[in-house]
Design a protein that fits this description.
Blueprint (H helix, E strand, L loop, with lengths): L12 H13 L1 H7 L1 E5 L1 H9 L4 E7 L6 H12 L4 E4 L1 H7 L8 E6 L16 E4 L5 H13 L4 E5 L8 H7 L7 E5 L1 H9 L4 E5 L5 E2 L9 E5 L8 H6 L2 E4 L11 H16 L2
Parallel strand pairs: 2-3, 5-6, 5-10, 6-7, 8-10, 8-11, 9-11
Antiparallel strand pairs: 1-4, 2-4
């Protein structure tokens, strides 16, 4: 896929900050340039540790007090990455944090290819088609990274894992996970050619997830928060499991439900 080029060296400071804010707030613009925005020391360090490609780094000498991050800014600047020094006021103009950390960046989105991934070489994977809350998605990604999950297979274009609210909720875990986007039909054909088990989560699942024996090569399919798995999604699943609830609640937050399942798969097969 071809993307348009973003070159901060060709823009003045005012124009660069305007573009950065648009990348941060406008998904269509992010996708157009295959970029995303991060801020905060933790995100900045984990992004660099995982070899993401930076488009531009923005920092405030006065606000950035973390020695590791300051050193990393200098190293990346020496490597040729465009680095822009801002006043505290200029930095706060692009920051969403009440206490500005003093470092932010625009980096290139990284996507893995479905045909290049072998879930059998990783731990459990999660399949999603729609998630309404960025915070829920971020929390789920954070849990997956915590149990060494393989990553996420996103069906269709609904989900944006590079939304700043998702990134904030992952606490940097996004950069440790493989993220794949594919079409429903492509995924169905891919699944049919491999010996992986797609397990769906539904209130009418035949077995309690604690009693179900998850296969070693498990993919978990989680439905949208309000409606759960669609009939089309259920048809792809080899089995459906349920999470027992003894109170009056009839459903769980998708991040909570997914986290319970991820830890159970981890406990059974890798714990």
């Amino acid at each position: 896929m071809q993307y348009e080029t973003f070159n901060p060296d060709l823009l003045n400071l005012k124009a660069t900050l305007a573009v950065v804010k648009r990348i941060k707030n406008d998904r269509a613009y992010r996708d157009r340039y295959n970029l995303f925005f991060i801020e905060g020391v933790r995100n900045f360090v984990r992004l660099a540790d995982n070899k993401f490609k930076f488009a531009v780094i923005l920092y405030s000498e006065k606000l950035l007090i973390a020695p590791l991050a300051r050193k990393l800014v200098r190293q990346l600047r020496r490597s040729g990455i465009t680095t822009i020094k801002l006043t505290p006021e200029q930095y706060r103009h692009i920051s969403s944090y009440p206490r500005a950390s003093g470092v932010a960046a625009v980096a290139y989105q990284h996507w893995s290819e479905l045909n290049n991934i072998s879930p059998c070489h990783n731990h459990c994977w999660v399949v999603l088609e729609k998630v309404n809350s960025p915070g829920n998605l971020g929390a789920l990604i954070r849990t997956s990274e915590a149990v060494s999950g393989g990553g996420f297979i996103l069906l269709g274009k609904s989900i944006d894992p590079f939304d700043p609210n998702v990134i904030r909720a992952t606490m940097g875990a996004l950069f440790e996970q493989n993220i794949i986007r594919t079409k429903h039909g492509t995924f169905k054909r891919w699944l049919g050619r491999r010996q992986y088990s797609l397990i769906g989560v539904s209130p009418d699942g035949k077995e309690n997830f604690h009693q179900f024996k998850f296969p070693d090569q498990t993919l978990l399919f989680l439905g949208e928060e309000k409606k759960g798995l669609t009939s089309q999604q259920r048809e792809l699943c080899q089995d459906l499991v349920s999470i027992p609830m003894t109170g009056k609640a009839d459903s769980l937050n998708v991040a909570i439900a997914g986290s319970l399942l991820l830890y159970e798969v981890h406990r059974q097969n890798y714990g």
